[in-house]
Amino acid sequence: MKLRVFDFVMLAISLGITALSAIPVVSTSPWNGQPSVEIKTTHGTYVYPLNQNRDLYEPGPAGVTWLRIHGGKVYAVNSPGPRKIMMRMGKISRDGEWLASVPNHVFVLITGGKPSTLDAHAF
Fold first, then answer.
1. What are the structural domains, with CATH classification, of the chain?
2. Using alpha carbons only, what angle is made at residue 82 by residues 116 and 91, rounded to the nearest 5 degrees?
3. By the 8 A CB rule, do 63 and 86 touch?
4. Sheet with 106-111, side-by-side order of all strands
5. pTM of the full structure
6. What does the DSSP 8-state code read for residue 19?
7. Cα–Cα distance between 15 and 43 in angstroms, integer?
């Protein structure tokens, strides 16, 4: 089978699409390296700066999850889960830390800023 011009054009387009799709994976916080809060829900993904105080209400299948960004930290004020695990996870502020409400399909992740330190169990 002989390669034709169209084959090379399709290869170039495929490589271009692959390269462009990698940009969100390798990019950092949209606020010039400042830490940000990434919230993933069934309705989409939202990114907010960690240094701006605000209350967020994220609807989901189990109800509304109330999140608060305050003083460089984010935490769940109220969560509709039966055990309130997301609220018990406490406040997060370092890169890689996360909160999750499984019944309500809400996931919160800190990106950018200082990386989190190792805990006692990570040896």
1. 29-111 (2.60.320.10)
2. 20
3. no
4. 44-49, 36-41, 106-111, 98-101
5. 0.68
6. H
7. 30
Which tens digits make up the pLDDT trace of 77-116?
999 988 999 999 999 999 999 999 999 999 999 998 666 5
Count CB-CB contacts under 10 A for residue 84. 13
Contact 23, 30 (CB under 8 A): no
Please say whether the beta carbons of 89 and 83 come within 8 A: no
- Other CB atoms within 10 Å distance of the CB of residue 80: 18
Pairing of β 63-70 and β 44-49: unpaired
Each residue's pLDDT tens digit, 19-61: 777 655 545 445 566 899 999 999 999 999 999 999 999 999 9
Rg of the chain in Å (alpha carbons): 19
Query: By three-state DSSP, how is residue 114 classified?
Result: coil
